[in-house]
Each structure stands twice: as structure tokens, then as C-alpha cells.
Amino acid sequence: MQKRVVVGLSGGVDSSVAAYLLKEQGYEVIGMFMKNWHDDSVTISNECPWLDDSNDAMIVAQHLGIPFQAIDLSAEYKTRIVDYMFAEYKAGRTPNPDVLCNREIKFDVFLDAAIKLGAEFVATGHYCRKGIIEKTGEQVYQLLAGKDPNKDQSYFLCQLTQAQLSKALFPIGELLKPDVREIAKKAGLATAEKKDSQGLCFIGKVHLPDFLQQRLEPKKGKVIEVPASSPTFKNGFADDDLINISKPYELQTELGEVVGEHNGAHFYTIGQRRGLNIGGYEKPLFVIGTDTDENVIYTGSGDDHPGLYRKGLFISTADVHWVRRDLALSIDKSKKYLARIRYRQPLETCTLHQKENGLYVIFDRPQRGVTPGQFAAWYEGEELIGSGVIS
């Protein structure tokens, strides 16, 4: 008897080939498009709007001869993703909606809908892989990096649970992107040459300032430049001083001089360069800190400014997630891992220190743009072991 699988058809080439490969492997495939958003006023209409994507997904399904339907998850997306995004930006943090969309929508609400259709699995066009090992008589699921080093998307799935992984299939994880396009071309898929979407999960490209201004009012405030010589950056903390190494810089207005004006501290994020619109500097200004309570942005001149770099970060206990629960560190234990704090960042050597209040991640070398609200993910070789929200 054929195993039924629902494929999240996004209207792109990756999910199209995922559906094609599953059908070739003998699965009973159903294509489903997620409608996550209704407000086109903040999307950039010529950048893969959802309607075009839905049509492309339907054309692919027709070509493959598989059933197709669209499912409206906009209410759940608003509650679980959009409301969370606004709350985080308002608090001065920078959320990652794609990680959340995978955890809360694709492998939760969407998965539930697939199971109601009698599916055993859901499949996506992610460039990652799933491994299965046996440990103490039980199956343990591994989240592995995709074979294409330029497209590995395991980071976006860093919040998945064992239960979610057990139901997941990643058909293109062993392939390189050029191979995926070649398969699509040979199979006659309409999406073979379609550009990759750069937008939010199943929404399209969003103009973030317009999006945020739906709820976050513009509010004039000071831009302060903090010199690289500020005492703030001359910490000299020992490597075992986990708290001081891992906390954000304590910036005050008296540390620098006012060099401009902004429209709201909640619109800016650590490491940001564009959008400041302040010229006259030999080196460009970068955001090194934001204070949404006082509505102040702190900047530093040059990509080498010490305010852009931190050696450690902290993840509170409530925000620590182990994909491999069997490898979770116990209190006062430490272990070396490789980690990244954003998608596409090369993996960096670090040591995880589990304490009662949470997890301290101390890197061998300082990291640029450690951003509260983003996810840190740690790996052992090709396997993603766990992740957490940076405090």
C-alpha cells in the first residue's frame, strides 16, 4: 500500500522537485499551498506575490497529476508569527519569522491538516536531511545539514522536535541546487527557471518598515555615535566570567555624541548599516545597540568597531531547545560544539555551559552582530543538536 505524503508546494522549484521525486519513489502525493497572508499593501508586488506562487504550485500539481488544494492558515500565522514579530520588535529584539514558521505553521498546523487527510508524512523543499539512529532501543531522529554547502537550510529547522521530525521528509536534501533545477527542467516543471523567493514563509517579499508601521508608530529619537575607545569595550573579562562575556554592552547616552535622528529605535537591529541616512564619515556607521525604552540608537564607525563584536551570548532556560533531547547538557556541564547565530554564517567553534538559569555560549573568537531575538544553533559535525533564542 502506498504511503501518503502531503507536500508543501510553495510555487518554487525546490518544493516542485520534492513532489516530483516523492511521486517517482512511489508515494501517494498530495500538493498543498499555504495561504498565510492577506495584506498585499506591505508586500513588494513584483517579488513573487502569493497569488502567482499559488498558481505556479497548482500548475506543477496538474503537470504531476497529483491532487492539489490551498489551505488558509492566515489566522494562525497572524497569531503565532505576526503578533510575535511585532511584540519582539517593540521590545527591541529582532525575531526570525522563518524559524518560527517552520516550528509553528509548517510542522504544526500544516502537519495537523496533512494528518487529517490521512498522510503519514509532510514534505518540504528544504535543503536538509533526516537521519534515524537507534539509542537504548528507541528511534532517534537527526536533523542533518543539506549536501549543498551553499544552500544548507538546517538552521531554519533548528526548533523542530523529535515528534515533528518523525513526520518530516526532505526529498532534495541530498542534492545540489543546480541538480534540482536540472531535474525540474527534465521533468518539464514550470518552475524550473523560477527565481528563488527571498520573502517571508509562503508570503512573498515584505517591505519591513511598512510592515512594522502597521502597529509600531514612527517616533523621532537620537542617534548616538559611541567611539571605539569607549571604556565599555575595554572589558578584559576572563573566559570563565560567563555572565559578563555573554551580556549585551551597557550603553549610555553620555558615552558618545548625538550625530543624527531616527524614526524609531524598534525599526533597527544590531549590525544594521542601511537606513541610518547619516553621511560625512570616513567609515560607515553601524548600529551597535538600541534602547526602545528611551528610543535611542547607538552606532559605531567602521566594520571593525568593537561594539559590533561579542564573544558570548546567553539563552534563558525557557528558550533552550534540544533537537537531540538525549544530548541535553545537565546543570554545570560544558561541551564543545560548532554554532552559528544567523543563516549562512560559517560555523564557529564554541563551548556551551549549562547553568541553572540557562545556557551560555562562549565562542573561541568574537562574533559580529550578536542580536537578541535571533536563534543560535549548535552542531556536531553535520548534525544540528539544538538551538535557542538569544537574550
CATH architecture identity of the largest domain:
3-Layer(aba) Sandwich
Number of helices: 8
What's the β-strand tally?
18
Order of helices and strands: EHEHEHHEEEHEHHEHEEEEEEEEEE
Give the helices and strands, then pairings.
Blueprint: E1 4-8, H1 13-24, E2 28-35, H2 50-64, E3 68-72, H3 74-90, H4 97-116, E4 121-123, E5 128-135, E6 138-145, H5 162-166, E7 168-169, H6 177-186, H7 208-212, E8 221-225, H8 242-246, E9 257-262, E10 285-291, E11 296-301, E12 309-316, E13 320-322, E14 334-340, E15 348-355, E16 358-368, E17 375-380, E18 383-389
Parallel strand pairs: 1-2, 1-4, 2-3, 4-7, 8-11
Antiparallel strand pairs: 5-6, 6-18, 8-9, 10-11, 12-16, 13-18, 14-15, 14-17, 15-16, 17-18
Helix pairs in contact: 1-2, 1-6, 3-4
